[in-house]
Amino acid sequence: MAVETTKDYQTFFDPMVYLLNCFDQPQKDAFVLRRLTDFWIQIAKDGRKFTNMLEYGTGPVVSRLINAAKHVQSIIAAEYLPANRQAMEDWINQDPKAFNWRPTFEYVVQKLEGMTPDEVEKREAEVREKIKAVVHCDVKAENHLEIPSEISAKYGPPFDIVMTCFCIEAAVESEKEYRNQIAYLAGLLRPGGYLVMHGVVKERFYKVGDKLFYSFPLMKEWILESMKDAGLKNINFDLFSSNFSREEFSSVYPIEDLKSGLKDHYSVYGQLC
Ligand SMILES: C[S@@+](CC[C@H](N)C(=O)[O-])C[C@H]1O[C@@H](n2cnc3c(N)ncnc32)[C@H](O)[C@@H]1O
């Protein structure tokens, strides 16, 4: 039986429901958080400094930027849905209704990076300071990214890092459209810069509250080929199933989730050479 999914983010996507479903415990997002920590350690290991970064399709999610703030001078957060941009702004402005990212900061800064507890608050302030703008993006629009000229003059494009997590597959409807979007994102990099992506392969929908949102089922080969075609080299691809034990996640995920979608989470990055 066909599953009824929606692409109507304006009507049905509730940022707080998404955050409480997926980010109430940092362990639920451990695969992404660990891979991001490893990514930054890897690319910064020879002392290289990075200037600027774009996250395309942030949703209402701050946690992908926790490591990044240590390494870059500026971050532009781009997001399609106004309510998600507002959730980002609420956190930046320390609005009392903002989602509490503190447990996730503690997890990343203390557990994954091995820093002391007093670094946690400092890192929160650093992330807030480094996000220079929260702007609109739309895979489906002619202009995929709307960065006001005074912002782009200072903070890019081009970027040293372009990151996108669980976003492109929520919007595209064909392999061709996916490949075009990867080429577009790679085209925002300066030579030597990195495209880093997280997502799920072969997924047709994902759940937020009682709504099922459309997802385009990606194949691993398409991801790798589209990155190569976009001029990316030194590609590093990793699947959840290759590194994570069920036991580690069984306390935070229902067993059915572990059997199905979670094992297909991927993490990939490549460098524009
Ligand atoms: C599953 S959420 C991912 C959010 C966040 N990046 C994360 O890692 O959890 C999917 C995201 O795709 C965005 N999206 C949906 N349609 C889009 C479109 N046409 N263009 C760009 N982003 C879109 C949604 O607004 C939402 O933020």
UniProtKB/TrEMBL annotation:
It comes from the Eukaryota. GO terms for molecular function: N-methyltransferase activity. InterPro entries: NNMT_TEMT_trans, SAM-dep_methyltransferase, SAM-dependent_MTases_sf. Keywords: Methyltransferase, S-adenosyl-L-methionine, Transferase. Belongs to the class I-like SAM-binding methyltransferase superfamily. NNMT/PNMT/TEMT family. The keyword Methyltransferase applies. It holds the Pfam family NNMT_PNMT_TEMT. GO terms for cellular component: cytosol. NCBIfam families: GntF_guanitoxin. One of its GO terms (biological process) is methylation. Signal peptide: none annotated. This is Nicotinamide N-methyltransferase-like. It comes from Exaiptasia diaphana.
